[in-house]
Amino acid sequence: MASEPLASLFYCDLGDVSFQTGPRGTLENATWKKHLKSSSALPASLTEIKSLFTMKRLFSTSRSTIDSKEMKKFQLLSHKWWDEEGEYSALHSMNDIRVPFIRDTLLNMRNHHQLGNPLSGLRILDVGCGGGLLSEPLGRLGASVTGIDPVEDNIRTADWHKSFDPILAKRVQYKSSSLEEIVEESVETFDVIVASEVVEHVADLEMFIKCCYQVLKPEGSLFITTINKTQLSYVLGIVVAEKIIGIVPEGTHEWEKFVPPEELQHLLESSGFSVKAVNGMLYNPLTGAWSWRESRSLNYAVHAMKCERQGGPGRAEPSPGTQGRSTRSPLPQLAPACDPSPHVVASRAPRKVLHRGTSPHLLQQ
Amino acid sequence: DVVVSGGGLVGSAMAAALGHDIHFRDKRIALLEAGARKEPGRLPAAYSNRVSSISPGSAALLGSFGAWDHVCSLRFKSFRRMQVWDACSEAMISFERDNLEDMGYIVENDVIMAALTKQLEVVAERVEVFYRSRAVGYTWPLPQHGCDTSPWVQIELADGRRLQTKLLIGADGHNSMVRKEAEILNMEHQYDQSAVVATLHLSEARYNNVAWQRFLPTGPIALLPLSDTASSLVWSTSHEHASELLAMDEERFVDSINSAFWSNINHTDFIDAAGAMFRSAVSVLRPSGTAVRQLPPSVAKVDPESRALFPLGVGHATQYVQHRVALIGDAAHRVHPLAGQGVNLGFGDVACLTQHLSAAAFDGKDLGSLKHLLQFETARQRHNVSLMAVTDVLKRLYSTTLAPVVLLRTWGLQATNALPPLK
């Protein structure tokens, strides 16, 4: 049973917006999603979207990955992206581990690279780029980056920030758009897609992944960082992070939308990806630094590669070596072969996995 | 991407280190130097009177971008031992490495500069050196920049050219303009001392691989080996005495040096007795005894025109870094030459900052971001502050002839000399 077309899926980076929802909001969203399954909710959501987007955002197709409520959250704080000590400081410091992770994974797959420009020649799509926090470092490392984000204010901020650096201004391009919109014009054009802190804000994850599949070149890489759906992530990620310490603006996350790594892996593999690595991440609020860890019960990062349809040649496992002087980014192996058939991850399931019965992300086949 | 202001030993080393760094291959570096370009001519036969004591760590840094090979091909002198003793007592301490390896190298500043310039030319496509250029104005970015102001540092040169950069490194000496313009407070103190430097010829050729330093009440006098027949003098003394030394004729100058090293005029019986007693106590506990006391060389003549003096002081910047600014070398810290560490601290800054910037470049970070600059500052301050404190304490400890202080330092020095862990 295919899921009903949803009004729009919205994806954004973490952070942003003093959106006072709390537990009430979580409930609201859960029921809202159920409503979305019936077409009567469509006009309501479309109207909402109309009021937020400019006219060109109205798609003739009613399928979309954008969640309008999520959009509103990020619109309010669109000017705060580049304040390194402000609301987005955790995202800024996440660059310290996610950029080396992406860089080293890609370097390990290349035979040769230009010193000083390790990612040159690669086309990267940064989905939900926000203010360009991740696009800029990737651009500095030599890649041609296209950053997309539905919130226009974010794109404006990103464009403005990159404009001062002549090299970045050429390498990084921003577009205010959703993922579906660029699918039509960019089938198989990108070597890498990065969706960092995005999938927990997306309304239809399966469609999102399918769009990623279409836009990626064969054997292209997909990098996702997101938050696991566990008791621990509710306590630490929402209660403590948002309400108590306040390192994340309140209302940014809804626990219902968190994605457990097994589910994400299942979705990826059923859409034609082969998951190469899943690593847990941890944020230390005292030092303001991120680090890798074994357990994926809180945050985690995923690297997947697009397979050829008929189970193409299995990629050799990327060696966990790194090049140059960089912090070590671990690359443990999970799926040895590029095998699109879904399989269950047996080991290292987080201990506190809750019953995910009513999650709308699950694909019923 | 980076502008280094100040083309001295430390500034040039910084530019060269970045220019040779693999992660800076596509970056553009500028070095601003107020002086003229020195043509790489032949080395003059006479030694220059400005020399530096280069530690093995600094030599490694210079070697990392190929400058040390040039130094070796020009001239330098390694020393294996350092003997330090007091003028007011017999106490002495000597330092040497296990296996008598090189403890350090005495190299003329001109030689180091020539080596650095050569290595800068090798990476000329990345490092542009602006000779005869002086910065007259800086425009600093606000940390949270507004709509239209550039987030980078703007530098206006005397000839009207403007540069803009992500990171400005101030290596322009203890009167650093970068530091002043960035409004970084500098805690400084002028010592009542000047240092007299000269090139001396020894009375007889010898295996000149020991560095000698004697603490006189007026200040330490040091003899640094340049070759088997020549040594460099660094004599820190009061301003009046320093001017006298410069004014005297050469014969009297040489006599003062020799008597400074050999005379026991400041000894008192009391201290000598106390010292001897302590020494016998030590020899009971450590029958192997302490290191052998060697006799310093005596000086025969001084190179004409090689006498010079410069004032001494100490200084330390309260911050080494700010948004898009970093200070290295004397701009950040200035020390007394008694420990021979001034330029080594600067080279240590270069090594540390290069390491942090290289990692930041490999991570695609904005080079002027305060985060990694603060890490550099913490690492260096931890190292520099303790060394500067010790140097300052030593200077003050040895600038008096008061009996109790002399006694304490005599015993202290003898004890330290006898106990390897303490050394």
A few lines on this structure:
The complex is a heterodimer of chains A (365) and B (423). Chain A has helices at residues 22-36, 41-52, 68-76, 89-109, 135-140, 152-162, 166-171, 179-185, 205-215, 231-244, 261-270; strands at 123-127, 144-149, 172-176, 190-196, 216-227, 273-284, 289-293, 299-306. Chain A is α/β, with parallel strands linked by helices and 365 residues long.
Question: How would you portray this structure in words?
Answer:
The complex is a heterodimer of chains A (365) and B (423). By secondary structure, chain A is an alpha/beta fold. Helices cover 33% and strands 16% of the residues of chain A. An 8-stranded mixed beta sheet of chain A has the order 3-2-1-4-5-8-6-7. Chain A is globular and about 45 Å long. Chain A starts with 21 loop residues before the first helix and ends in a 59-residue tail after the last strand. Residues 1-62, 310-329, 331-337 and 339-365 of chain A have low confidence and may be disordered. Helices cover 36% and strands 27% of the residues of chain B. Chain B has helices spanning 9-20, 56-64, 67-73, 109-122, 177-181, 239-247, 250-262, 269-285, 342-362, 370-397, 403-418; strands spanning 2-5, 29-32, 51-54, 77-79, 81-86, 92-96, 104-108, 127-130, 135-139, 153-157, 162-165, 167-170, 186-202, 210-216, 219-225, 230-238, 299-302, 308-317, 321-322, 325-327, 333-334. In chain B, the strands form 4 sheets. In chain B, strands 5, 6, 13, 14, 15, 16, 17, 18 and 21 form a 9-stranded mixed beta sheet that branches. Chain B has a 6-stranded mixed beta sheet with strand order 8-2-1-12-20-19. Chain B is built from 11 helices and 21 strands. The mean pLDDT of chain B is 84. Chain B is globular and about 70 Å long. Chains A and B meet through helix 4 and helix 5 of A and helix 9 of B.
